[in-house]
Specification:
five-stranded parallel beta sheet, 12 helices, 14 strands, alpha/beta, 21% strand, nine-stranded mixed beta sheet
Length: 387
């Protein structure tokens, strides 16, 4: 009965996503940050360690040093897992080394830089029996889990159609050349990978569609665009999808929709009705029925006989108290932490504990990027979803 000990790679001063991870990890009091290799810049790494009250001897300058030294520490001090919050090209090295040295891993999405790297990580996870958590944040929302449970239970009948869209406007200008550090690395093929908007937010949309529907993408037909002149990666795109059971779908992802903030929406229709969820109104799940009035389900409501155990477990506040991005992130860390704690105590984690994205999701995310880019460049109308 103790807190889990976490180390962090990346996420130093002024790094947006590192701070988000630390807030999420700390939300339930199950995890404490004990060490970090917080920047490739030695001065920033040291200053970041001081700001986070890390001991000087556990503020490392490289992830190699951190993993090597932490692995030699006594069991009552050694970290339990490592969180990796670096740009995409720097995910694989620390994740693989962590697993090889007996550490569980939390990693930002996409899991790796290439599909081959993702497959290697998945294989290593299977060989070691360790846990890898991939932070597809939106799967942590209670009403996303409710939608998934309803479809799995057959409440909507056979799934027929899936629409998912992710619209942002923050790259409507050539911000990568105006001092925006986030834009600079996310639009750089050497750091982000072969896809821009589709790699950054299209992967979230694809994961959400598969997670809620329970169906895997089998074919796709992609149209990718570079709208802002001078950009090196796609900033806009649309994809026609085929899922298992011959279910069709449409996915769109754009970062040049001027005025949009973080507008992620999904609609899934079955024989008896459909569900609708949007990230900017996350506590609400709209359920539309073929032959009865539309229902509005709300997170935190006293719906013990309506909401699934997965949704109820991930509700944090009473009805009417908004829960958002940080809470969803916290739910992923909470489930991951409970899984590790159960294993430390020699217990079998529950299905609700194990409800967080993992290595298989990471492989499929990288396969989505590879296949979308290949389809976008192909003269063929449809291409198989190859892993």
């Amino acid at each position: 009965m103790r807190k889990l000990r976490m180390g962090m790679v990346g996420g130093g001063k002024d790094a947006f996503i590192g701070a988000i991870h630390r807030i999420a990890a700390n939300m339930d009091g199950l995890i404490e940050l004990c060490c970090g290799a917080l920047s490739i810049n030695p001065e920033i790494a040291k200053a970041s360690g001081k700001e986070l009250f890390l001991p000087e001897d556990r503020t490392y300058l490289t992830y190699d040093e951190m993993i090597t030294k932490e692995s030699k520490m006594p069991a009552d001090k050694r970290i339990d897992f490592i969180t990796i919050v670096t740009p995409n090209f720097a995910h694989f090295g620390p994740a693989m080394m962590a697993l090889e040295n007996g550490f569980n891993v939390v990693v930002e999405k996409p899991m790796t830089f290439t599909l081959d790297e993702a497959k290697q990580l998945k294989k290593k996870v299977e060989e070691t029996g360790l846990q890898l958590c991939l932070t597809h944040t939106y799967s942590g929302y209670p009403m996303v889990k409710q939608a998934r449970a309803m479809i799995k239970e057959g409440a909507l009948g056979k799934v027929r159609k899936i629409y998912v869209e992710y619209k942002q406007g923050w790259l409507s200008k050539l911000s990568e050349r105006e001092g925006n550090a986030q834009a600079a690395w996310r639009t750089d093929p050497k750091k982000s990978g072969k896809a821009g908007a589709m790699g950054d937010i299209g992967t979230h949309a694809a994961h959400l569609a598969e997670y809620i529907s329970g169906l895997k993408i089998t074919k796709l037909c992609a149209d990718l665009n570079i709208v802002v002149e001078g950009r090196h990666l796609d900033d806009d795109g649309s994809v026609l999808l085929k899922f298992e059971n011959n279910v069709s779908g449409v996915l769109s992802a754009t970062q040049i929709a001027a005025g949009e903030e973080n507008n992620l929406k999904i609609k899934i229709y079955g024989e008896k009705g459909g569900i609708e969820w949007m990230q900017q109104e996350p506590n609400t799940l709209i359920v539309k029925w073929l032959e009865k009035p539309t229902e509005i389900l709300r997170a935190g409501g006293n719906y013990a006989n309506v909401l699934s155990s997965f949704a109820l477990k991930n509700c944090r506040t009473p009805g009417g108290h908004p829960e958002g991005y940080l809470e969803a992130f916290g739910n992923i860390y909470h489930n991951f932490a409970q899984t590790l704690l159960a294993k430390l105590e020699g217990k079998e984690p529950t299905k609700e504990m194990l409800d967080f994205p993992g290595a298989e999701d990471g492989v499929r995310g990288m396969a989505f990027i590879e296949n979308v880019v290949a389809s976008g460049q192909s003269k063929e109308k449809w291409t198989e979803f190859i892993i």
